[in-house]
Specification:
heterodimer; A: alpha+beta; Phosphatase 2c, domain 1; seven-stranded antiparallel sheet; six-stranded antiparallel sheet; about 20% strand; globular; B: alpha+beta; FAD/NAD(P)-binding domain; eight-stranded mixed sheet; 23 helices; GCVT_N (chain B); mitochondrion (chain B); Pyruvate dehydrogenase phosphatase regulatory subunit, mitochondrial (chain B)
Chain lengths: ~450, ~900
């Protein structure tokens, strides 16, 4: 079974999306030029999600990748809801008041986010009312609190993450009279999702990370070469600090059972996540919710299964680790990706491939004859080859697609091998997950001119 | 790399010539400080200061000094012939489609040929000939058209078969060729050395040359050049000549009173190679392959080959400081397609070793023609620049014409198509120039078919009705930045797209224009003619009338409300402008001129009207929208809209009245249509334009009104033998020569400009005569269409060229207009052209080498005039413009 190059391309490009920040007066005044994103499923359906939006009431742009587990419900909910929580956390008091008054009197609401969505990125229609009510309760509390202080982005991010996870938990405990919604909020709460979110405003880049997705900065050195700077820490067993943190939070008696086979309680790979109430609620609560819940939930062995050595919940948090970075002119791009990418590629290779792609499209190294002996025929051949090379690079219009092509198709020499690519993409659904994970990538390109002018 | 190239192109002669004139200038100053950078101080004053030591500046200096002007200073910011001139490929080619350019190139060739003998400076002149290749039949047609005009000028030229091409140049691959044009007298030169030779001769004639002297700006007082500020001090002067090449635009803008010189530089690449194993002969002809966008010449045993790519790289948009010429990069990837074309044309060159890829910026102009002449705002400020990469071909001729212009007041040939005043401020936007030259440079090689339009820099000036007309299917062309309708595509009628409608044969709009013409003849049509130049001249006393009576040849002392067709003549009686003037009141006049007269006519009148604050001239072009209602039912539409009788008894022909149309008041209605058809032109204050247009269209419905465009107008006016200025009429044509004696009042009781010349012509006869030709054996569907510039043959001998042509839907024949000369059979001397001479000949028109029989007429068919109102005027008011 063999896929032709156009077939390969149509698979790779099915989910690709590009956004260019619009120019005003022929100038892009934003520090972001735009972004490319793409997803390649291994699970059916895919459990990864992605989001991108521009904040309309504050400055800045939000981008995030979400890796779901035990189903996609939680990742889906987080991808729809998290940016609203962040945006609301960032809003000044007056704007919150204005929004609340508008809702109160039934007037049109100020738009908070402008979404940049691929047609396949959907929002749940049924749950929107429920989600909105939870969000409204959140901003009403913020209004009542009125700390009067200007909002710190780091704090806003942490509050938003924690609040959303809390709301997910609460909604599942309270339930919903509508049986479909009732089942939905339970699926959201019992599945889990990691989140890696970037907030870019001018030269201020904040990364909030929960779980084992990763943010990486592509930096161009003075000699033109590319290097990678990590802007997040993986929350998993490979991270000593994280293991340390988990152990600190529980009695010494549990030390041995906390992390087994590099998994939390021997079950969960990420050490932080949204949802996953099985690792957060008390056993009593879990039992009560499952018993009163719909039959589908009751029949599900996974949800009923209580983790072993479950003594002092919660074992899991959605609280993110936030890293702030001041962008410099040499910071050319940011890659946000789920672990599906990082399992197959080293970050240094990611930096090089994206860097060369982004610059190579625009200018190849010029040729100079200098003192060499070159004939017209040789030069002609060289130029034809260069043209061909440019057009093959143009095969990918999207940096994320280009990266996926390498991640899936790279041979031992680091170049894309079509045969390998074809094999990997033609694996039957049930086998695919054994060879690769879902991959979701967002590549944000920065505007060095604007950044340099700050 | 650039330094190496300097040594290659200009050999030791450069130094020799350089020292020669340096020695002369310094001996005049009796100092010999050769080592210092500026050995000779600048003079405090001079008659002429020329800025620019390239081919243009040195050619102007050479010709001025030859014509007897001695007090001339030439300033060069770097070294002589060090800019574009040094890098230029050195091809002297006469194969030019525009006749004035052809004449300049022909003169340049003759000048360069004898220059070495005259100056002792080796110019590298070599008569190699040139071969222009055609890969398509259309290309061959365009070459045949050029060949026709070269032949009648006495320049040897022939259309040859691909087999003959191989005999002339063994390296050429002919498999994809359909034919070629061979011009055996085309030549190669070392352009830098030509420039140095011209400088040497000029210097011997007394011209002072100063290198490393840059002009910062030119000072102008009371509209006259007074001096030049340089980095080495000021020079007072009467005349300044801007030959600054691609810097001419900036230099023009550096003064307080800007002189707009619309040109923009683009990078231009060519390749130099080492010699072939068996070095190429230096007499091998130059090859031009326009379909491959390249030229190839022999160069020191190897080749030099460059071209005009489809995707040019404009540069210096933000000014000269961006980067210096010397630092321009070789861009091989950009040159790739041209290299492919070269190897396709000469596959045998594969093994030839590359020496260098030269990046040599060239300046281009908005209409692909060079820029010469005097500034409309600063008298004494002359310009010669914007050569569109043909500087070496034009250099000699252009310098000669400009020198004649300065010394005699006008060059010996009609150069209106090159005149700086064809442009105004509207063409000098940086953005416009950048976009336009990106279209112009590829056009150097593109096929130029009749009636092509520029696609860039459009929609600059528009009528307020633009959107309305566009929505009704208008197809647009542009004149002086103004969008004008060519014709209206009826709904559901799918015309071929632009590329396919490019043809030398019958165009796809033929039937569409035919129906518009029919509607003009039988019902009524509206044409938006807002682009016309409109001036108002008024005074407190009789100053306006007196001045205009002196400046115009017809009698303007007519009753208020009359419209007069009149020429604005020069001293030789030639048309500087052709216009209609309405007497609005005793003391004010409304003047309508062709669109492209806006700058020229303004400058001409400004320079000649008395300096009197009580005499006011205003350009009101932008204030009025003009609607031309053509056709027998125009009278009904207008009288219904105005509740005023519009019949001939109440509103005779050539009459002007302010009246109301619909709700709008103050509409100037004139009973002229510029076509010889009955009707009116409405001059509408722009805020009423939409209202009046809507009213006219609504009311006109029952009379069968429709929109029409300029192509219909053109067909109507040409079939009635109406000449128009800029195409048929120029500064070298008098009213006597085009049958318009009736528009001249020789006895109007006072002198007027051109009167003497006209009186003399009246006595002695004319040497050319504007004639109408009806093509007899021309098949409209099958044969090539005439355009303009086709040679006219009388009894088998060449007598002149056509100036315009159109298909007459009434006569169902092609009509060509043109001038007939009478050349003495033996001496070639021009003789008087009599009516008998015209009438007693058998005529043929040569379209791309094929001759068609034509019937000559000196008067239009009276049957074409449907109505005659005022007998004395309308019948032969042979007056039109476009």
């Amino acid at each position: 079974f063999y896929l032709t190059p156009p077939q390969v391309n149509s698979i790779l490009k099915a989910n690709e999306y590009s956004f260019k920040v619009p120019e005003f007066d022929g100038k892009n005044v934003s520090s972001v030029l735009g972004f490319d994103s793409n997803q390649l499923p291994a699970n059916a359906p895919i459990e990864d999600r992605r989001s991108a939006a521009t904040c309309l009431q504050t400055r800045g742009m939000l981008l995030g990748v979400f890796d779901g587990h035990a189903g996609c419900a939680c990742a889906q909910a987080v991808s729809e809801r998290l940016f609203y929580y962040i945006a609301v956390s960032l809003l000044p008091h007056e704007t919150l008041l204005e929004i609340e008054n508008a809702v109160e009197s039934g007037r049109a609401l100020l738009p908070i986010l402008q979404w940049h969505k691929h047609p396949n990125d959907y929002f749940s229609k049924e749950a929107s009312k429920l989600y909105f009510n939870s969000l409204r309760t959140y901003w009403q509390e913020l209004i009542d609190l009125n700390s009067g202080e200007t909002t710190d982005v780091r704090e806003a991010l942490i509050n938003a993450f924690k609040r959303l996870d809390n709301d997910i938990s609460l909604e599942a405990q309270v339930g919903d009279p509508n049986s479909f919604l009732n089942y939905l909020v339970l699926r959201v709460a019992f599945s889990g999702a990691t989140a890696c979110v970037a907030h870019v405003d001018g030269v201020d880049l904040h990364i909030a990370n929960t779980g084992d997705s990763r943010a990486m900065l592509g930096v161009q050195e003075e000699d033109g070469s590319w290097s990678a700077v990590n802007l997040s820490y993986d929350h998993n067993a490979q991270n000593e600090h994280e293991v340390e943190r988990v152990k600190m939070e529980h009695p010494k008696s549990e030390e041995k059972s906390l992390v087994k086979q590099d998994r939390l309680l021997g079950l969960l790979m990420p050490f932080r996540a949204f949802g996953d109430v099985k690792f957060k609620w008390s056993i009593e609560l879990q039992k009560r919710v499952i018993e009163t819940g719909p039959d589908q939930l009751n029949d599900n062995e996974y949800t009923k299964f209580i983790p072993p050595n479950y003594h002092t919940p919660p074992y899991l948090t959605a609280e993110p680790e936030v890293i702030h970075h001041k962008l410099r002119p040499q910071d050319k791009f940011l890659v946000l990706a789920t672990d599906g990418l990082w399992e197959t590629m080293h970050r240094q290779d990611v930096a090089r491939i994206v860097g060369e792609y982004l610059t190579g499209v625009h200018h190849q190294q010029p040729i100079a004859v200098g003192g060499y002996k070159v004939t017209l025929g040789q030069m002609h051949g060289l130029l034809t080859e260069r043209r061909a090379r440019i057009s093959s690079v143009f095969e990918d219009q999207n940096a994320a697609t280009h990266l996926i092509r390498h991640a899936v198709g790279n041979n031992e020499f680091g170049t894309v091998d079509h045969e390998r690519l074809s094999k990997m993409l033609s694996l039957p659904e049930e086998l695919a997950r054994m060879y690769r994970d879902d991959i979701t990538i967002i590549v944000v390109q920065f505007n060095s001119h604007v950044i340099g002018a700050y | 790399a650039a330094g190496m190239f300097l040594r290659l192109l200009s050999d030791m002669q450069w130094r020799a010539a350089h020292l020669k004139w340096r020695r002369m200038t310094s001996s005049q100053r009796s100092t010999s400080t050769t080592a210092e950078p500026h050995p000779v101080s600048l003079p405090a004053q001079a008659q002429v200061v020329i800025c620019g030591g390239g081919i243009m500046g040195t050619s102007v200096a050479y010709h001025l000094s030859k014509m007897g002007w001695k007090d001339i200073v030439l300033l060069e910011q770097g070294r002589l012939a060090a800019g574009t001139t040094r890098f230029c490929a050195g091809i002297v080619s006469t194969a030019r489609p525009v006749s004035i350019e052809l004449k300049m190139a022909h003169y340049s060739n003759k000048l360069y040929q004898q220059l070495e003998q005259e100056t002792g400076v080796q110019t590298g002149y070599m008569k190699t000939g040139s071969i222009s290749l055609a890969q398509t039949q259309d290309r061959l047609i365009s070459l045949k058209r050029i060949a026709s005009s070269l032949n009648v000028m006495g320049i040897p030229c022939e259309i040859i078969s691909p087999k003959k091409v191989v005999q002339l140049h063994p390296l050429i691959n002919i498999h994809d060729l359909v034919g070629a044009m061979y011009v055996p007298e085309d030549a190669l030169v070392s352009s830098a050395n030509v420039s140095l030779a011209l400088a040497t001769a000029a210097s011997r004639n007394g011209v002072q040359i100063h290198e490393r002297t840059s002009v910062s700006h030119v000072t102008v007082q009371k509209g006259r050049v007074t001096g030049v500020e340089t980095d080495r001090g000021r020079i007072q002067c009467e005349y300044f000549v801007n030959c600054a090449g691609q810097w001419a635009y900036e230099l023009g803008h550096s003064g307080e009173e800007p002189v707009h010189i619309p040109l923009h530089a683009c990078e231009h690449f060519y390749i130099l190679t080492h010699p072939l194993t068996e070095p190429l002969s230096s007499s091998l002809p130059t090859v031009v392959d326009p379909d491959g966008r390249i030229y190839i010449r022999n160069w020191q045993g190897g080749i030099l080959s460059g071209g005009f790519e489809k995707n040019p790289k404009p540069l210096f948009t933000e000014g000269r400081n961006q980067l210096e010429i010397q630092n321009l990069q070789e861009d091989w990837d950009h040159f790739g397609p041209l290299l492919s074309a070269l190897l396709r044309r000469m596959p045998g060159l594969e093994a030839l070793q590359i020496m260098q890829l030269v990046n040599c910026p060239e300046s281009f102009t908005p209409d692909m023609r060079c820029i010469m002449g005097e500034s409309p705002t600063a008298r004494g400020y002359f310009v010669l620049a914007g050569m569109n990469s043909a500087g070496i071909s034009y250099g000699g001729g252009a310098g000669k014409y400009l020198a004649e212009w300065m010394v005699n007041g006008y060059p010996s040939e009609n150069v209106w198509s090159l005149d700086l005043k064809r442009f105004g401020t509207l063409q000098s936007s940086r953005t416009f120039l950048r976009h336009r030259v990106m279209e112009v440079m590829p056009l150097m090689c593109d096929l130029k078919v009749p009636r092509w339009d520029f696609q860039t820099g459009r929609q600059l000036r528009t009528s307020p009705l633009y959107d309305r007309l566009d929505a009704q299917g208008a197809r647009w062309m542009e004149k002086h930045g103004f969008e004008r309708v060519k014709y209206f595509v009826p709904p559901g009628n799918d015309l071929l797209d632009l590329d396919h409608s490019k043809t030398f044969y019958k165009p796809d709009w033929f039937d569409i224009v035919g129906s518009e013409v029919k509607c003009c003849k039988e019902a009524v049509c509206v044409i938006d003619m807002s682009s016309f130049t409109k001036f108002e001249i008024s005074s407190t006393g009789d100053q306006a009338l007196e001045s205009l009576q002196y400046l115009f040849s017809n009698d303007l002392d007519v009753p208020v409300g009359h419209v007069v067709h009149t020429g604005m003549l020069n001293e030789k009686g030639g048309y500087e402008n052709d216009c209609s003037i309405a007497r609005l009141s005793k003391r004010s006049f409304f003047m309508i001129s062709p669109t492209d007269q806006q700058v020229h006519c303004w400058a001409w009148l400004k320079n000649r009207l008395p300096d009197d604050s009580n005499l006011v001239m205003e350009d009101v072009t932008w204030k009025y929208t003009a609607l031309n209602l053509i056709g027998p039912r125009a009278v009904d539409v207008l009288s219904e809209l105005s509740y005023a009788p519009m019949t001939a008894e109440h509103f005779p022909s050539l009459f002007c009245k302010e009246m109301s149309v619909g709700y709008a008041n103050g509409i100037r209605v004139m009973s002229i249509t510029h076509t010889g058809e009955p009707g009116f032109v409405l001059y509408i204050p722009i805020e009423y334009a939409l209202h009046v247009y809507n009213e006219v269209m609504n009311m006109g419905q029952k009379y069968g009104i429709r929109n029409a465009g300029y192509y219909a107008l053109r067909s109507l006016r040409i079939e009635k033998f109406f000449a128009f200025w800029g195409q048929d009429l120029d500064a070298f044509t008098t009213p006597m020569e085009c049958g318009r004696e009736f528009q001249v009042k020789l006895e109007k009781g006072m002198q007027f400009v051109g009167q003497e010349a006209l009186l003399e012509q009246k006595q002695n006869g004319v040497y050319k005569r504007f004639t109408m030709f009806i093509l007899e054996d021309h098949d409209t569907d099958m044969d090539l269409w005439p355009w303009w510039g086709e040679p006219i043959f009388r009894n088998g001998r060449y007598v002149g060229k056509t100036t315009s042509s159109a298909y007459s839907y009434t006569l169902e024949r092609h009509v060509c207009l043109g001038f007939v000369h009478h050349f003495d059979e033996k001496t070639g001397e021009e003789l008087v052209v009599t009516t008998d001479f015209i009438n007693q000949g058998e005529y043929e028109i040569d379209i791309a080498g094929q001759r068609f029989q034509a019937k000559a007429k000196l008067y239009p068919f009276s049957s074409l005039f449907t109505q005659r109102r005022r007998k004395d005027e309308v019948e032969l008011s042979g007056y039109q413009r476009e």
